[in-house]
Amino acid sequence: xxxxxxxxxxxxxxxxxxxxxxxxxxxxxxxxxxxxxxxxxxxxxxxxxxxxxxxxxxxxxxxxxxxxxxxxxxxxxxxxxxxxxxxxxxxxxxxxxxxxxxxxxxxxxxxxxxxxxxxxxxxxxxxxxxxxxxxxxxxxxxxxxxxxxxxxxxxxxxxxxxxxxxxxxxxxxxxxxxxxxxxxxxxxxxxxxxxxxxxxxxxxxxxxxxxxxxxxxxxxxxxxxx
Length: 226
What we know:
By secondary structure, the protein is of the alpha+beta class. The protein has helices spanning 129-137, 143-146, 150-225, and strands at 6-9, 13-17, 28-37, 42-49, 54-63, 69-74, 80-87, 89-95, 99-106, 115-124. Mean pLDDT is 77; it is low at 1-13 and 17-27.
């Protein structure tokens, strides 16, 4: 099952934590989040990580002028691991150590346009494999008689779950791409309608001016004859 992360805003910062009582059967967790970043603002999030785990983060700007944002990823020591300047999307993977990793989305360069941002976190090697196997051994009996191996069962289950998680991830990204493309199309549609109305208004004004000018020419000729 998909595990959602809890988001706790802290004055421009937020803390991402797994929900209380979450099971750790799988060593891989993922979560996605969409939020609106106002113009001239910067939002940061924290993600606790373990040593020798893996943090993969993908983000996309779904809506907003320019479809761009600044992105920072900092280690628990405060070192800048990733810096993207005015990018519309990005994918980054880092091997982690114990501590809180901070990633920020910066829209301070924009004074008018707010941005709608989608990001997804994939956390690998966050569970306890050894404890999982011990828990499974309690429910598997008669393996010698049935000529089964617990390791093969766990490997098969983890392989299936990894593929399902990958499928869910791809579907989530496709939905994000679809949302961004739909916003672009709607923006283009509004822009085309606006300039079409402007063009129509100019044509009406020009036509009226032409009729008035022609009418005034004939009126001048009639006056000169009399």
